[in-house]
Amino acid sequence: MSKIKQKTEKDENFPVLFLVGKKMRPLVACYYRAARFADDIADNPKLLKEEKLNTLNELEKAFYNPKEQSSFRDAKSLGMLFAAENLDSSMYTDLLKAFRKDACNFQPRIWEELIDYCNYSAAPVGRFILALYDENPSTYLPAATLCAVLQIVNHLQDAKQDALLMNRFYLPLDMCQKFDVRNSDLYLPYETKGLRLLVMEITEKLKGMLKDTAPLPRMVRSFRLKYQLEIIFSLTNRMIKRIEKEDILAAHIHLTKADWFLATGGGFVRTLLKIIGLLRY
Questions:
Q1: Which positions ≥6 away from 259 have C-beta within 8 Å?
Q2: Residues 195-202: contacts with CB within 8 Å, 24+ apart?
Q3: pLDDT category, 23, cuts 50, 70, 90?
Q4: Fewer CB within 10 Å, N- or C-terminus of the chain?
Q5: What is the pLDDT of residues 221-244, one digit of tens each?
């Protein structure tokens, strides 16, 4: 199997270990490694589709049968940890379903198909964190919406890279047709007028979704989780504003240290204000 450079937790927009309690960190770290490895398999441009699918299937087998011999140690370890904690296996196996779609270079036909994809590629991570904190399942739906926003923001950030390296496109085909956007436009050095209009329509949808998820920090009980959600909301809003102002093909849009500083400080204040009832959303 061809080797590729794997991303680490520090490379993510919203690191999953941030503010996680010490007792939870080994499980969260194992979950991250197992998910990242599977994602890297699906994203490896040097592997054939069949190789990717076979490896993803082997990862699932290792997860479900951790006592059997397998070279996929993180998937095996995760399977044992999930069993010990009585966690729903779908919080990992749903990710594998999304990665299988990635391996086949899935492109959604309509917006709803993109959201459905996010329900497998991103929402399980939200459910996993909420389950670790023993939060009410009523939080899962708004969390899934927030996770979809994060996933689509990432798609916009990486649109050119996904096209160049993997010939992969996440822009819904009906929206592309509406603005006369072709997949080949993502290979250009700058956005076309149609692509800019398409990006703006997507960001408007994302802003609406964020408003729908605004009550989530008040719904969760854990202070750590409230605080982390406030930071995520702040960073996501900053990313969306940047995508609205900048050309997604001309430069890689990313968060800065200043963004993190303002988000962590402001998030802490907003968390406290909501707890004492001086701030609603």
A1: 235, 238
A2: 195/249, 196/247, 198/171, 199/156, 199/243, 199/244, 199/248, 200/244, 201/175, 202/152, 202/156, 202/171, 202/175
A3: confident
A4: N
A5: 999 899 889 999 999 999 999 999
